[in-house]
Design brief:
Blueprint: H1 2-29, H2 47-54, H3 58-69, E1 72-76, E2 79-82, H4 85-93, H5 119-129, H6 135-140, H7 142-161, H8 170-187, H9 199-211, H10 217-221, H11 223-231, H12 239-264, H13 278-293, H14 308-339, H15 342-353, H16 371-375, H17 378-390, E3 400-401, E4 406-409, E5 412-415, E6 419-421, H18 424-427, H19 447-450, H20 454-462, H21 477-492
Parallel strand pairs: 2-6
Antiparallel strand pairs: 1-2, 3-6, 4-5
Helix pairs in contact: 5-13, 7-8, 8-14, 9-12, 12-14, 14-17, 14-21
This protein binds protoporphyrin IX containing FE.
């Protein structure tokens, strides 16, 4: 009898331990157990949030949870969501590291600045290129001014002029415009894309790019499960997604190779400043400097320095993707909002006509005004900010990992190694800061009209999070704001 009870006892002990480890501890004892649960299963199972993500309802569902339960909620045994400025400061300005979730943005099998997990390697990469996207560089870059002039007057307006009278697919057109602007700054005008004129290729490219959208779930949320399934012959990501990724990578590698060949051959004698590959140039010289100064001691020795060609292409394709898509989405929503408000269009047109030069097509040599003058237009700024608030192009979760041994969030102690994230969709819908948050009300950003107190203005600006915050915030925010400023008037003139 006693002999028989030993295995039984062992089984019982394992069951008790499992119940303790996977149910009692996370639900009642873990420091996270004090945080309100977004769903009753959240303390002991990630299935609810996984399903919510799989069915593309995360932004809405987490927003509803925050409205009901407050600025911090638990969404899975080892994951929380935050939605207040103090939390944003702790997590994002506090430099919490990224995790494996971002590995999907490793292109060509090597990391780029965006996908780096750790802040040291991230900073080394950022040093090489951030200057090209600084506000002063954007304002003063002769290459950028020449590129914008060529793209707007040489490509965009002729495309609008020759468009079908029934209407224009603005989503498609804006994506083409932002892609041409982005790649011109990266690779130079002649070696960048020409999506505005090459309609067939842009449609093919955008199909490849957009088509992959529904296939990121397993790679980002269940990478180990994905690998295991692959081992036993089950392919959760279809082959055509791999093929699309390959083609997009080949295309970007070709742009890099062409621009590098140009830099070696004719760049020195080319008088057209628009052909300057500003970002690529900065990255190549940054890598060269890192090699020379630090060599094997560099934190990038085993990545960017070892796989130089692939690392350059990995960084470039990330900017191609991040740059064209976010700005294209913004301009599309902006066009939609303007199309619903004729008086706003009239006011905006009047503001723009006050500029010198005023961009009118009837001018003998139409010219884009200085970016400083465009930046200073209050109504233009207000409609852009309100579009970015209500229709944030990256509205979803931006996960980070809490540091060891622990940190404090929303008054709760949170142990190290916990996934924590915020989403602009919710941050931008705080009704105390943005009254009637679902309404497109550009006057929130017009200080002469809205009657806000100094404190209200400060709060409004503090809660604006379209570009994220801290050391990993958008490196292209100035480029984006600059790029959208001169494009918008074209729609109106
Ligand atoms: C309206 C336009 C844009 C919006 C709303 C936007 C938004 C963002 C956000 C929210 C992040 C942080 C994401 C995260 O941590 O998960 C980010 C990062 C980034 N964005 Fe943008 N972006 C825009 C335009 C651009 C442009 C034009 C570029 C061109 C280079 C760009 C390049 C990047 C890069 C490289 C990062 C990673 C920065 C780092 O890790 O240090 N973005 N962006």
């Amino acid at each position: 009898m006693a002999f028989l009870s030993v295995p039984l006892l062992a089984v019982l002990s394992v069951c008790c331990l499992a119940v303790y480890r996977f149910f009692i501890y996370p639900t009642f004892i873990s420091p996270l157990s004090k945080i309100p649960n977004a769903h009753w299963t959240a303390p002991f199972s990630p299935l609810w949030i996984l399903w919510t993500r799989y069915s593309s309802r995360e932004n809405r569902v987490l927003h509803a949870a925050h409205l009901k339960l407050g600025p911090i909620v638990r969404v899975a045994p080892n994951e929380i969501s935050i939605n207040d400025v103090a939390g944003l400061r702790t997590v994002y300005a506090g430099g919490f590291e990224k995790g494996e979730w971002y590995s999907i943005f490793d292109n060509y099998g090597v990391p780029c600045m965006f996908s780096e997990w750790h802040s040291r390697t991230h900073s080394a990469r950022k040093r090489m290129i951030s200057n090209t996207y600084s506000k002063s560089n954007i304002h003063n870059s002769a290459a950028l001014a020449a590129q914008a002039q060529a793209i707007l007057y040489g490509r965009l307006l002729p495309a609008v002029d020759s468009a079908d009278v029934k209407g224009i697919d603005v989503h498609d057109l804006w994506f083409a415009t932002t892609m041409d602007g982005m790649t011109a700054y990266q690779f130079g005008l002649k070696n960048g894309s020409n999506f505005l004129q090459d309609v067939a290729y842009r449609r093919h490219w955008l199909d490849l790019y957009q088509g992959r959208k529904g296939s990121t779930f397993f790679t980002q949320e269940l990478p180990q499960f994905l690998k295991y399934c692959k081992k036993i012959g089950i392919k959760l990501v279809p082959k055509w997604v791999d093929d699309a990724n390959q083609e997009l990578e080949d295309w970007t590698q070709m742009l890099c190779d062409n621009a590098m060949a140009y830099m070696k051959s004719s760049a020195a004698t080319d008088k057209d400043v628009a052909n300057d590959p500003v970002v690529l140039n900065a990255l190549i010289s940054g890598i060269g400097k890192e090699k020379k100064m630090k060599g094997e001691e560099s934190v990038l020795a085993s990545t960017a320095l070892k796989y130089e060609r692939l690392s350059i292409a990995s960084e470039m394709i990330d900017h191609v993707a991040a740059g064209h898509e976010t700005s294209g989405i913004t301009l599309t929503y902006l066009s939609w909002q303007l199309s619903r408000d004729i008086p706003l269009q009239d006011k905006l047109r009047a503001e723009l006509l006050g500029l010198k030069p005023n961009m009118l097509m009837s001018n003998s040599q139409p010219q884009i005004p200085s970016s400083k003058d465009l930046d200073a237009l209050p109504l233009l700024h207000a409609v852009l900010m309100e579009t970015l608030r209500l229709h944030a192009p990256i509205p979803g979760n931006e996960p980070r990992i809490t540091p060891y041994p622990s940190c404090t969030l929303g008054g709760y102690t949170v142990p190290g190694g916990v996934r924590v994230g915020a989403q602009a969709h919710s941050v931008h819908r705080n009704s105390e800061v943005y009254p009637d948050p679902e309404t497109f009300d550009y006057t929130r950003w017009l200080d002469d009209e809205n009657g806000y107190s100094e404190e209200q203005r400060k709060e409004r600006d503090r809660w604006f999070w379209a570009f994220s915050s801290g050391g990993r915030m958008c490196v292209g925010s100035n480029f984006a704001m600059h790029g959208e400023n001169p494009l918008l008037p074209q729609k109106l003139s």
